[in-house]
Amino acid sequence: MSKSCHVDEFVLGWELTNPSSLLLLIERKMKKLQRLIIGLMTGLMLIGCSGKVVRTLAPDTVDEKRINLEASRSYQQVIAESKLSKDKRLVEMVKRVGMRIAKASGEPFDWEIELIESPELNAWCMPGGKMAVYTGILPVLKTEGALAAVIGHEVAHATRRHGMNGYAQAIENQLATAAVAGIAVLAAEFYCESQECKALATIGGAAGAMGLAFFERKFSRDDETDADRIGQIYMAKAGYAPAEAIEVWERMAQATGGDGGPEFMSTHPSNKNRKQRLSQWLSETKPLYEKAPQKYGIGETIF
Ligand SMILES: [Zn+2]
Asked: What does the pLDDT read at residue 269?
């Protein structure tokens, strides 16, 4: 996941009124540009060396089943390369929240969730239901209910099939990635910012392409709003007080200054709009919470 390549209005406004931050912003942009150029040159050079790129897949053969399969393979790789948390209480919490949200979604995916030991404020759900939460986000979220809101949002991207065209395209173009895989470890040193990118660069092929497309994903504002709404429905059905979703954005914004953090902070209806909408949706989601077979309120306190 690239954390530093986006600028929202809030951050830009702040950066421009602060000269030292403006320099930082320019420096970050230059770094990104440098990586992009190296990445492009490496890719072009290798496609040149390999003579021709033979396509073995027609676009219409890249269906959802295939996307989920490649997502699952790249998930195994990322998890294998990650340090998993050994904190029993937190692992248990993340697993129970993940599985409750999964069940509430009604989607028959092959669900999995892991708690990765990392200072990053991150959480995600791949197509087909492979999820991860990073330990860094837990102290910011403060409650199990807030964690349910975040997992609900991420799961909604998967169940609503956001970004599927991009994933299909990435798998279709897998041979270009496979050509890069030859010196992927070297290229990864220059190109990759995230641990996921480095893990995936070494497997290459369709799974690597799928994984990279996923970790570089950018959803539209409409998709973000949709994930907010559906995520709040899932958490309510799973028995978590849906009003807790409103608190999440406040806590995240305070912790990150509006920038960085998990993908839901990076493409953005502004925090204010987001909180307003989540409050309006309570008229729909509160009754779902009332009907939930078991209610947990805001759940356990995380720390
Ligand atoms: Zn999102």
From this structure: 64
Determine the Cα–Cα distance for residues 191 and 182; give it in Å rounded to an integer. Answer: 15
Tell me which residue has tokens 């942009």.
Answer: 29
- Compute the distance from residue 266 Cα to the ligand 1 centre, in Å: 8
Query: Is the per-residue pLDDT at 34 higher than 70?
Result: no
Which of these, 248, 249, 259, lies nearest to 302 by C-alpha position? 248
User: Taking the chain, what is the end-to-end CA distance rounded to the nearest angstrom?
Assistant: 26
Helix (H) or strand (E) holding 11: helix 9-16
Centroid of chain to Cα 146: 16
What percentage of the chain reaches a pLDDT higher than 70?
71
- Distance from CA of residue 193 to its chain's centroid? 15
The Cα–Cα gap between 40 and 47 comes to: 11
pTM score above 0.90: no
Q: Tell me what the mean pLDDT of segment 196-215 comes to.
A: 86
Could you give the residue numbers annotated as active site?
154
| Centroid of ligand 1 to alpha carbon of 192 (angstroms) | 22
Please state whether 98 falls in left (phi above 0), alpha (psi between -120 and 50) or beta.
alpha
How many angstroms is it from 93 CA to the middle of ligand 1? 22
Query: How far apart (Å, rounded) are the C-alpha atoms in residues 15 and 22?
Result: 5
Q: Which secondary-structure segment (H or E) carries 94?
A: helix 88-105
What distance in angstroms lies between residue 42's CA and the mean position of ligand 1's atoms?
A: 31
Residues β-bridged to residue 78: none
Eight-class DSSP state of 111: -
For residues 56 and 61, what is the distance between their CA atoms, to the nearest angstrom?
A: 10
Instruction: Report pLDDT for 177.
Output: 52
Q: What is the DSSP string of 269-282?
A: S-HHHHHHHHHHTH
What is the C-alpha to C-alpha distance for residues 285 and 282, in angstroms, rounded to an integer?
5
Amino acid at 1: M
Cα–Cα distance for residue pair 238/291, rounded to 1 Å:
10
